[in-house]
Amino acid sequence: MLKYQKTGLYFSQILLSLILANSVQAFSSESHSQTTEKFRQIQQPIPVKIAVTAAGLGLIGLEIWWFMFSKPKAKQATQIQDTQELEILVDGGYEPNRITVNSGQPVRLKFYRKDPSHCLDKVLFPDFNISKDLPLDKTTTVEFTPDKPGEYTFSCGMNMVRGTLEVRG
Ligand SMILES: [Cu+2]
């Protein structure tokens, strides 16, 4: 799994435990109010309840933002003499899965495939007529020169796992 997906899962867990903590608290304060005055004094002050609820709502907001608006960060290829080079790890997906290169300059992408899944044994750059086999535990070099700025997709053989190549003018 990719890093940001893991982080998303992590947020879900925090969120779930907060909601649980909140409902347990609501339940216990309800039963307190039905019992004697002594117990009522133990109840958490309202500002604490508001703070906990606000934190929970904040996390829900963060969660929604995370899945709807967060984009994985693009990684810029490194200039080596007149070629722009970048290593891409193939392991459950492409890492990075968003890469940035400059238009009109040769690009060398080094795909290192660590994932034994048959799904990832090929990488395609349809816009550049490139299809390359990626042998396991080896680095495979893909070279081309993009001459038009824009966003291009690269993918596995079945077009299930994808990455984005951003060509800047
Ligand atoms: Cu695939």
TrEMBL record:
Keyword Transmembrane set for record: yes
Positions of transmembrane segments: 50-69
One of the Pfam families matching this protein, by short name: Cupredoxin_1
Domain EfeO-type cupredoxin-like as annotated: residue spans: 63-165
Alphabetical UniProt keywords: Membrane, Signal, Transmembrane, Transmembrane helix
Secretion signal span: 1-26
Gene3D superfamilies: Cupredoxins - blue copper proteins (2.60.40.420)
Protein name listed in UniProt: Cupredoxin domain-containing protein
Organism of this sequence: Limnoraphis robusta CCNP1315
